[in-house]
Amino acid sequence: xxxxxxxxxxxxxxxxxxxxxxxxxxxxxxxxxxxxxxxxxxxxxxxxxxxxxxxxxxxxxxxxxxxxxxxxxxxxxxxxxxxxxxxxxxxxxxxxxxxxxxxxxxxxxxxxxxxxxxxxxxxxxxxxxxxxxxxxxxxxxxxxxxxxxxxxxxxxxxxxxxxxxxxxxxxxxxxxxxxxxxxxxxxxxxxxxxxxxxxxxxxxxxxxxxxxxxxxxxxxxxxxxxxxxxxxxxxxxxxxxxxxxxxxxxxxxxxxxxxxxxxxxxxxxxxxxxxxxxxxxxxxxxxxxxxxxxxxxxxxxxxxxxxxxxxxxxxxxxxxxxxxxxxxxxxxxxxxxxxxxxxxxxxxxxxxxxxxxxxxxxxxxxxxxxxxxxxxxxxxxxxxxxxxxxxxxxxxxxxxxxxxxxxxxxxxxxxxxxxxxxxxxxxxxxxxxxxxxxxxxxxxxxxxxxxxxxxxxxxxxxxxxxxxxxxxxxxxxxxx
Length: 480
Ligand code: BG6
Prior knowledge:
The chain is of the alpha/beta class and about 475 residues long. About 35% of the residues lie in helices and about 15% in strands.
């Protein structure tokens, strides 16, 4: 049976400023933390340099230069039929140092142009305030979200962009994949606590205390931004963004089931329980005690959490893994690791492909919160080949797309209030995890390579037309 997507369903794609805008030091933009990340690969972790070394290659500096190609790129999205485009604002384009008294007008004007262009094409922007980045100065001076002072800087930034764009942008997300902050290495991307970093092999490990205190600061900051939006611009819709890593119990051994419940709470539920309900979940106290976490909660913080409840829940979904007490072979993954599932195939980067898990996750999330859901990232990184005639055949990507859309259709039929789907990286961009260009997600190919070369020419892949067909029929066709 063909999937039935509701009238007005949002179809689109998702991006992040640091991974595709480029123009890292143009028009008054300050360096962001990602500008210090070099390229890596599946085998080799990305290296961070605390100072920018002019002799080294930093792939985020140029991205795919959306900054100068936005009109062409948004026109291509419109040609595919997008009615939603997820993007983020680069915090250091607006506040170059993060603690500046005044915003950078040239940075604000850039996003006016982008939103106006979306409007011209009938595309609704979905805007992430902070997608894995912050001005580098905030890292050097405050060690990122380790410091409570970040709350005020973020609040000021959020108010500035809400005041400026409230009549151009209705849908907002505060932090990308906030729950990655629960993970040991989540500091590299999510909380930016990287002072003292000494090289790729060691990374900077964080204590449970530091991680959960940093998350508390983010919950309060997110709460204040949402409270401000609700009080001043009631038409706006405010959401969270979680990296949903579904895990299954490795066996039916009750010890595995219990361990997996703990893993699901830590990875997937802790942050969204706070953001969707407005208070810490009942299991948090024991968790804090057993991990020697003593949260510093200031007067008014719990009110900010309560007032900052989200209107809709969003998440990324790429893969699943297994968790258990028995030995299992480890699988690679999106910001986290887990066991290999013998029933699933994997991408070239080892991420296990599980569309049924998407249907299951949508049902679990909706049962828990009963608010509208958006899948705001989903996709597969793959090697693409450009044929001599310039065509790019990517049946693997089309199959992944179709299977996940079918799973969403099933979930809607199950009763889930799903309102949007934005594929990750509708246009090739720099990988967050590895810094590679050759790990491609796009329906649109960009001639840009890991060594920094390339003409930046855009080309339509076969998947461009496949997604176009699905969107045109609102999910009724193109899934066979
Ligand atoms: C998500 C991030 O975790 O996964 C994106 O929000 C990221 O920023 C995406 O790009 C895919 O991961 P990767 O490492 O393949 O780029």
